[in-house]
Amino acid sequence: MREIRVAVVGVGNCASSLIQGLQYYSQKRKDPIGLMHYDICGYKPENIKIVAAFDIDRRKVGKPLEEAIFSPPNCTKTIEDAIPPLNVKVSMGPVLDGVSPHMKGYPAERTFLVSKEKPVDVVSILKEKDVEILINYLPVGSEKAARYYAQCCLESRVSLVNCIPVFIASDSGWAKKFKQKKIPIIGDDVKSQIGATIIHRNLTKLFHDRGVKIDRTYQLNTGGNTDFLNMLNRERLISKKISKTEAVQSMLAIPMPSENIHIGPSDYVPWQNDNKVCFMRLEGRIFGDVPINLELRLSVEDSPNSAGCMVDAIRCCKVARDRGVGGVLESISAYTMKHPIKQYPDETARTMVEEFIRGERER
User: Where are the alpha helices (H) located in 65-215, listed in sequence order?
Assistant: First the structure.
């Protein structure tokens, strides 16, 4: 069987949903509900093999990966509770800025408990395990840690799929480094399969295309997972707000004034666990300068929603490696990430991805 050898950084809810989903779809080959693509150039979800994992929590470090994905503070819904042995033990990564100081004041089952283990040599493990693609699932605001792992990818010639809003694939300097080494990279800040960002983008474009003048809009999100707890530290939210806001503003010919658009995480509600609730409002004017208001409430399990995009991003990254293509993969980045190096409308990005899969587009 053709393998795609993957390492994950951060064994949190998103990694848990992805790994459970890979097992789930290996058993559901005749009825692959919930996938944007079942087959990409011969690669199916079951071809993705997790061969290495890095974390900093003492309840996960040193544990078999199939156990660690169910360890606290993970709280996502169970997709597949019988995960066969993956023959992967979670390695201790460098902490750097991966843990926000404010989280020390919360119950242990809700936050990180940093291991006292010595960090491993990440580059050596990536080489030893023949890793092809590294997925960055670090907490929002982990600027130093994200760049550390990006540098490890360059040194080990491993591709990076950057799922967090630290601008690496969308940064011209980092993009140039990956292109020079002919290493594919995808990023930044993963979208959900059907999430607040993609709905907000498409509603904004619908209003714009139908001649509606949008005066004001907001998107407020609440959740109870560690990601929302981490984001209570507003200093870690700068790049996240930029990423989400630009994703929506890019649908307009003329961006809205900053005082009239508010998009970003709003609060932490512990009992929501991994369920994310979005409240959205668009205010505008139609024919004759007559007001129109739209309000929407979305409730969705956050981590499986991102995994729906990740299985495509991983496989497209592998296809690029097979073809010897390096640098930023613009098509799949635009389709699956909130802050790609270049924004495109979602239907255009989807067409670009189909062209890439057929070999009609290089990246």
Answer: 65-68, 122-128, 143-156, 172-180, 196-209
What is the value of pTM for the model shown? 0.95
Cα four-point dihedral sign 226, 227, 232, 235: positive
Task: Report the distance separating Cα 61 and Cα 114, nearest Å.
Answer: 9
Helix (H) or strand (E) holding 291: strand 290-301
**Contact (CB, 8 A) for 210 and 352:** no
In whole angstroms, what is the distance from residue 83 CA to residue 152 CA?
29
Q: What is the pLDDT of residues 304-357, one digit of tens each?
A: 999 999 999 999 999 999 999 999 999 999 999 999 999 999 999 999 999 999
Average pLDDT over residues 132-141: 97
* In contact, 155 and 28? CB cutoff 8 Å: no
The closest of 327, 325, 319 to 170, measured between CA atoms, is: 327
Q: Which amino acid is at 292?
A: I
